[in-house]
């Protein structure tokens, strides 16, 4: 499961829409789940019922809105669909309420057990109208849904390098962990004649109890799914190959760092053998480690801690004493080499900033010459990263954990 999908599962669990939700937790967030389901139903009815859609458009036109908006169907099968749907409902709150008040009844299709439509019945629009509490819960749910949305935008496609994907999840977990000490920007309906959502500030203590419980559930889900396992092997290698990343990072445990170092040492020795730079007489050399296949992208990476320590039976100090590593650990020499990894980030035809890119860094001839082993390792791991069309494969290889 890629990071984005696993994050979506964690969020759905936290808001009561996950199949594996414990009964005790479901009771604590039942009001929030009910409000979000009401928002989903509202979006669907305004999308399907022409009378409601027309009334919503008419209300916006009367309010002087030049480009009329429609509700978004908040499908839970789409990443962040619940959040985007409720946010659009908040944008259109005044117009939705106008449409509901001006339309007394709507036709609703009834379905049988097989999901086939069997008849059209009339329902009062008051049945789908959210209460004041449900509007409040929907708005406050952005405390967790908004941050999860931001994380997904960073993780999907190729927007975040493999060495930084774990950091995105770790920051989201830290946000949930520190939530009781924070203030939050809660969306509220726009001013008349506008579709721009406004925001009000609320402290943690002012949030509804079911919203606070939902944040706590997300924190637990993130810890169980991501944090407790640590980064996967390809991700760890990308971290250690990044000349700008401090190693070891503060957010890894000592055990995770130890296992990561041993994985890197084993890959490093295999890369040296593949390049013909290792000592054939070395006891750490073997037919398996000398094969170039050892440095190709891992097909079934697990978390670092899923590997037994007994697998590392060869010495691990070889990588620490060779000339390339000595050069890498020299901060003055490394900082001079890092300059070749910067590129211009251009927006609207203008250079916004200079940005470091590992692909640019390891594609440079001087980098390959100074760090041949690390360049070989980077090519093997980064070869899994293709293009937007295979982004799920990319995330599965670069950000998978079990």
Please describe the topology of this protein.
Layout (H helix, E strand, L loop, with lengths): L2 H12 L8 H6 L1 H19 L1 H13 L18 H11 L1 H10 L2 E7 L5 E8 L7 H9 L1 H14 L9 H13 L5 E6 L9 E6 L5 H19 L5 H9 L12 H21 L43 H4 L1 H6 L2 H8 L3 E6 L2 E7 L1 H6 L1 H6 L1 H11 L8 H9 L3
Antiparallel strand pairs: 1-2, 3-4, 5-6
Q: Percent range for helical residues?
A: 40-55%
Biggest beta sheet attributes: 2 strands, antiparallel
Summed over residues and divided by their number, the pLDDT gives a mean of 79
Computed structural class: mainly alpha
- Taken in chain order, the helices and strands follow as HHHHHHEEHHHEEHHHHHHEEHHHH
Please, how many helices?
Answer: 19
Radius of gyration: 26 Å
Silhouette: elongated
Sequence of strands across the biggest β-sheet: 1-2
Number of strands: 6
Distance between the termini: 8 Å
Strand content: 5-15%
Concise structural overview:
This protein is mainly alpha-helical and 402 residues long. Helix content is 51%, strand content 10%.
Fold and architecture overview:
- Mean pLDDT is 79; it is low at 281-320 and 385-402.
- The chain has helices at 3-14, 23-28, 30-48, 50-62, 81-91, 93-102, 132-140, 142-155, 165-177, 209-227, 233-241, 254-274, 318-321, 323-328, 331-338, 358-363, 365-370, 372-382, 391-399; strands spanning 105-111, 117-124, 183-188, 198-203, 342-347, 350-356.
- The chain contains 19 helices and six strands.
- The longest helix is centred in the middle third of the chain and has 21 residues, at 254-274.
- The chain starts with a helix and ends with a helix.
- The chain is elongated and about 80 Å long.
- Helix 3 (30-48) crosses helix 4 (50-62), helix 3 (30-48) crosses helix 5 and helix 3 crosses helix 7 (132-140).
